[in-house]
Amino acid sequence: MSAGMAALACALAVAAWPVHGRDPAGVPSAKPTPRRGLAVTLALVAASLKAGAGTHQALERHLGEGLDDVDGDLDVDVVRERLRRCRLDEETGAEVDEVAHGLRAAVLVSRMLGCPLARCVEAVRASAARMRLREDLRRNAFAVPASTMRLLLGLPVVVLVLGELMGAHPLRVLFGSWQGALLLVLGMGCYASGVVWMRRLMRASGS
């Protein structure tokens, strides 16, 4: 009796033990796409093509299956979604869009002209690398102005605190007379105008 109960307990434990790669319903779980970046993904696709893999085999190996639309061409929306999963945090949506459309164009050009697809993919990778470099240069160029803007936004508060510590009592002047109140209103208006102006400048520059 005890042996039968032990065998039943072992069978239930084995049945309840989670199977690797499956969810509780027994359906194979989707393998997460590694976040290796657009350049590395394109380099892997090009390497697979150079190693002799076919177009769909190379693309599906690194981007997953189901990339074609009803016409048999690359579905840009599906490719964009797969690339968005593997992009790095600093890579923008515009870069993902360019790579997705570039891969579709590379496949079409290779199919129409008969040129090696690996070279076309390498051209897409080089274009994405130039776009990444341009984005890094732009971000570095506006890093100092952005820091200066944040410093200037906090400067009025620092001045008021230092004035109180030095005994000048700027708060008493601002709130103790109509002249001070007028200066406070003018100062707040100039401050708000400066904030709006600087934010528009930074937004127009794309930072």
Task: Characterize the overall form.
Answer: rod-shaped
Give the fraction of residues assigned to helices: over 70%
Number of extended strands:
0
Distance between the termini: 75 Å
Q: How much of the residues is beta strand, in percent?
A: under 5%
Mean pLDDT figure: 77
Order of helices and strands: HHHHHHHHH
Largest pleated sheet: none
Number of helical elements: 9
Low-confidence stretches: 1-32
Radius of gyration: 30 Å
What class would the helix/strand composition place it in?
Answer: mainly alpha
Protein name: Type II secretion system protein
Keywords: Membrane, Signal, Transmembrane, Transmembrane helix
Transmembrane segments: 140-163, 175-198
Signal peptide: 1-21
